[in-house]
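Q: My labmate handed me this sequence with no annotations at all. I'd like to see what the chain might look like in three dimensions before we decide whether it's worth expressing. Could you predict it?
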Amino acid sequence: MWNKNERKGKVDQARGRVKQAVGKLTGNDDLQAKGRVDETVGKVETAVGRASRKTGDAIARAGKAVKR
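A: Here is what I predict for the chain of 68 residues:
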């Protein structure tokens, strides 16, 4: 299940792709550039969220193993 950062990252990636497409259709280079930035920021947010989730899962597994 995705955490807050992963969800926000996926939304930002989608928003960036839409901005890029609209910018390309309208010939707006500035909008395309903003879209690329949004998509990149979204990828970073998603990666941070995934790393955070995996770290939390590993800690939870280690805690369960110690309790045994």
